[in-house]
Specification:
heterodimer; A: mainly alpha; MetI-like fold; globular; B: alpha/beta; 11-stranded mixed sheet; two-stranded parallel sheet; 12 helices; elongated
Chain lengths: 320, 384
Amino acid sequence: MSTTDLESDSPAPQTSSMRGSGRRVGDSVFSYLSVGSGLLIFLTLAAVAIFLTSESMPAVIASQEFSGTSEFSLIEVTLPLVYGTVLASAIALVIAIPISIGIALFISHFAPRRLASGLGYMIDLLAAVPSVVYGLWGGIWLVPKLEPVYVFLNTYFGWIPLFAGEPTAPMRNLASASVVLAVMVLPIITAVSREVFLQTPRLQEEAALALGATRWETIRTVVLPFGRGGVVAASMLGLGRALGETMAVLMILAPGATFSLHILEVGRHNSIAANIASKQAEASGVDMSLLIFTGLVLFVLTFIINALARWIVARSGPKS
Amino acid sequence: MNVRQNKLVSLAALGLVGGLALAGCGGGSDEGNGGNGGGSGASDNGGASAGGYAELTGNLAGSGASSMQNAQTAWTESFMGLVGAEGGDLTVTYDPTGSGTGREQFLSGQVKFAGTDAALDEEELAASTEVCNDEQAFNLPVYISPIAVVFNLEGVESLNLSAEVIGGIFAGDITNWNDPAIADLNPDAELPDLDIVPVHRSDDSGTTENFTEYLSKNAPDAWTHGPIETWPIDGGQSGDGTSGLISTVEGGNGTIGYADASQAGNLGTASIQVGEEFVEYSSEAAAKAVDVSPREEGREENDIVVELDRTTEESGVYPIVLISYLALCGSYADSAEGEAVKAYASYIISEEGQQAGLENAGSAPISEELRTEAQAAIDGITVG
């Protein structure tokens, strides 16, 4: 299937330059196009990185860390935001991953074929709902519904730091934001996991069954180990979406800037993207630059997580 | 083969991570969502500036405060309707970039007028000569908006509140609705034994600034944080934008917040103590607050900036208002541009324009007296 095969396969040149050169032009045009598309990714990424870096310089220069005299400190502004962003995304993943794996396994191994494809469509549909709609739904409908759950958790499990504190209605807290984020990342993780599970070698599964394994044992010993890398990758993809999600968080969360563990308390956390969106309308000068700096931090954060995920996938990939 | 495909899936998935995370940053924050500037049926009297619309052509761009976004939408649409009806061809746009950005763009000549919550100061006026054909720019108060203190308290429809009490509530010192300080002002109301949940704006906002300025002028002991744009107290309930704040107040019981009066909806609104009486917000009472306030001193005749008298005790004045200004050049080099600006500004301050603001954004129409002065300032713009 390589190009050398093609060339050696082709019959002796007929010196019909018209045909030959025509094909070559097509080939080279296509090759330029695809190389160009590839390069475009780098260019775009570089343009974003350069923009973020250069525009955030004024804030860096004016900051306490750099000038020593300024009113604001980069670390004090940025760290709580990073904390809130990572915490919200992590909780969203904790909620979404088990459910996603469950759905994916159901679709790939348990559901009748018809139901499976219908369910697949539904999941994909969930991914197509715009985040503003999730924000509206979460803020208006879901938040009051979650209130009794939070009160229950707070009353009986208040000894766990996560559920401690004093929640006040309306529950525009980090937990609500995380629940909505979980719903939003669910379809991504499910879709990718399902594809991976479907690729489990038939022979291995049948071998397991032949050895007397039950369906669950087959899944545990064959499907899950085979799909581990894919599930991790899917989760990281979901994490990427959760980290950068703006509108839903903005519309649900009553923000604050602390390192509180109390996810049921209102006004304790905020995410980088939501903070940028809420502040940028009236920001100018150094304030704007500071917002862009937090954007740069999110950019770097995403890269780190991306790299981490690649490393995990490489390590935990299926042993062949 | 399967293994390889599996890896490919993983890699493809990873490649998308970055893209999605970045896509998230692009989400705009459209403030408010009224914006139904339906053109208010372009009535056929052209007001003071009738005629001349036929000659207006080209593009006129402005930017600035998001507070007057809904009003500007109504103004641009109905003004363009009027111009079009007379055979002119002018496009007016207003980009709600925020006050600070609006002033920057105005002073760098990118836009020909700006909307701003804070009037251009001396330094900015001096800088304006570079883009204003060697004349100074000036400010006109065109958008007066009452800020209502809204609350959601079962069984209580109206409340009387003083600056002291409001300050105490928002500073977190008065924490229960049956607090004697509130009960004293409302002898007839049945106040429940319920925690007060103060709700503030989570974004930086001119509404917050005007609200806290009122508090710090009238109750400096109860509200010690001064006039601020960003909420100074950590934690607490909040909402993004006016709509977010309102939905937060609606979502709880015992909540209290402050918002553009036009957006208060079904929520209870407090009457504010002024002198000995309690004043319910209304556009007349808000406009009156501007009328009883002195002009800021040391400014040119045409530069109309109001120094809001927050502590007035005059009867029938609602003191919690927000004023947004229109920043214009004293002179425009391009005559088509200058004529367009003059016509548009005249329309905004006209009775018709102010009425459109009231209908679409709930702003308070400016008084006749202020209109006369503003019109004189606009007429003073030199062109060409």
